[in-house]
Amino acid sequence: MKFVDEYRDAQLAQRMAKAIAEITTQPWTIMEICGGQTHSIIKYGIDQLLPEEVTLIHGPGCPVCVTPVTLIDRAIAIASHPQVILCSFGDMLRVPGTDKDLLSIKAKGADIRIVYSPLDCLKIAQANPESEVVFFGVGFETTAPATALAVYQAKQQQIRNFSLLASHVRVPPAMEAILSSPQCRVQGFLAAGHVCTVMGYTEYEPLVDKYQIPIVVTGFEPVDILQGLYHCIEQLENKTEAVTLDNQYSRSVRREGNLGAQNLMHQVFEVVSRTWRGIGEIPDSGLGLRADYVHWDAEKRFADWIDPNPPVLTTECISGEIMQGVKKPHDCPAFGTRCTPEHPLGAPMVSSEGACAAYYRYRGIESINGRLARGVRVRH
């Protein structure tokens, strides 16, 4: 298949890995932002092809993973009412809240439905006029245009029994939060190609200038990622030239992005601060509905159903450290034992883009054995 098979060419990948080894003269730590990139790296063993001087760490690139517990609890509170049909993507149903998840209340009779597009919710709302249909919308800028379109059409068509519980987040502020942290180990970034397909990459250029760190917009297949790494390391090794933003994913990404999608997002959403699970509040990192769309804002419409003082969650999950690149999944003592996809302690083990899910799926035994080799005792 064009643009897929050619970017999974094993011989080309080996040549790219060899080229990286040839230009690498010192240790470098590079973070990929997207959870899809993380899964490709672990699935295809890209990190194992690289010279030992190159360390890959995984960023907060899974929107399900970064959705805070408070929003999960709000979704559960809203969905618990008998007149509500709550819709979301499949991964969200098993993400732990404070003491339960959406799947557990669905098992007790709540009407919770998996959808593949926010627009599906409008059809459900029209077919069920006696019910309140709430879409629990999560995602980076990649999925925000579809959510914006659903809300826009709901207003245009006056579908008043539809509303949005918004948990959309923006990538550049999260990258700046990582770079400004005292714990930061990142020396270069692979930026998420699908986010930049929508938004372009002008928002990343100030980060390059401010922190003097190379950022390479990168795709998701093995050759994409290896090419992105090559361009990043080449800049790091070349101390005589200023670092720049490179676009490896030029077959999809343009500097200005998709202006039509951006205009729709701007019409429906405004930039707000957002809390990220395990990380905390990041200024200007979220998208919330504008005042013109307040009727379709589930948090405001159903505020009486939501606990204004939610309990503080305590857990041994180290998702925050994993998503900031401070630790890897196999550094968690619970990985693969007390925390599995069937019984997750945190969102990174649930989501199809979560780093813990990737390690468990593709390197479960290897990761557990590696932890045992470092002297961590596993309790069954």
Layout: helices, strands, pairs:
Blueprint: H1 10-23, E1 28-32, H2 35-43, H3 46-49, E2 54-58, H4 63-66, H5 69-79, E3 84-88, H6 102-107, E4 111-114, H7 119-127, E5 132-139, H8 144-156, E6 162-169, H9 171-179, E7 188-192, H10 193-199, H11 205-211, E8 215-218, H12 222-237, E9 245-247, H13 259-268, E10 269-276, E11 280-289, H14 298-301, H15 319-323, H16 355-373
Family: Belongs to the HypD family.
Keywords: Iron, Metal-binding
Protein name: Hydrogenase formation protein HypD
Description:
The structure is a single chain. The protein is globular. It is built from 16 helices and 11 strands. The model is unreliable at 372-380 (pLDDT under 50). Helix 1 runs parallel beside helix 12 (222-237), helix 2 (35-43) packs across helix 16 (355-373) and helix 8 crosses helix 13 (259-268). Strand 8 (215-218), helix 12 (222-237) and strand 9 (245-247) form a beta-alpha-beta unit. The protein folds into 2 domains: 1-317, 3-Layer(aba) Sandwich (Rossmann fold), CATH 3.40.50.11740; 319-373, no CATH class. The protein has 380 residues and is α/β, with parallel strands linked by helices. The longest helix has 19 residues, at 355-373. The strands form 2 sheets. Strands 4-3-5-6-11-10 form a 6-stranded mixed β-sheet, sandwiched between helices.
Describe the sheet with the most strands: 6 strands, mixed
- CATH topology of the largest domain, by name, is Rossmann fold
Structural class: alpha/beta
Stretches with pLDDT under 50, minimum 5 residues = 372-380
* Side-by-side strand order of the widest sheet: 4-3-5-6-11-10
Number of extended strands: 11
InterPro entries: Hyd_form_HypD (IPR002780), HypD_1 (IPR042243), HypD_2_sf (IPR042244)
Family: Belongs to the HypD family.
Pfam families: HypD
Keywords: Iron, Metal-binding
